[in-house]
Amino acid sequence: MEEMMRLSVRIGREVKYCVVTNERGLIVASTGSIGPFEERLAAMASLLAETGKRVVSTVELGVLSHASVATLDDTLIMYEFPVRGRPFRMVVVIPTRETRRGGLLRIFRSRIDMETGLAQTIESVKKILEE
Known about the structure:
The chain is of the alpha+beta class.
């Protein structure tokens, strides 16, 4: 999955981890070797997706597309996308501190660039998985 390797270039910031999972939380691709941390990340992506769906359903907000969890050090972003009618998830961990530098306008532009880059990567990964 070379597309995932190019993700940090697309979003303009460091990507610490990136994992793609199927609906059961099994890893189908990773930017690095798959170890215990990546497996925990995949499991938490499933938990985050299910929790997000429950929240969205309870407050009637529509359909979940992504969810994130931020700490002082890192931000985990989970995107869900369909492949042949089945949900797959891409989980990205990026340093939070990069989003706090440079004022509100820079943060807003950075967020747009990041979401655009993630969307492009998801589309590329989706095409590969559909083959």
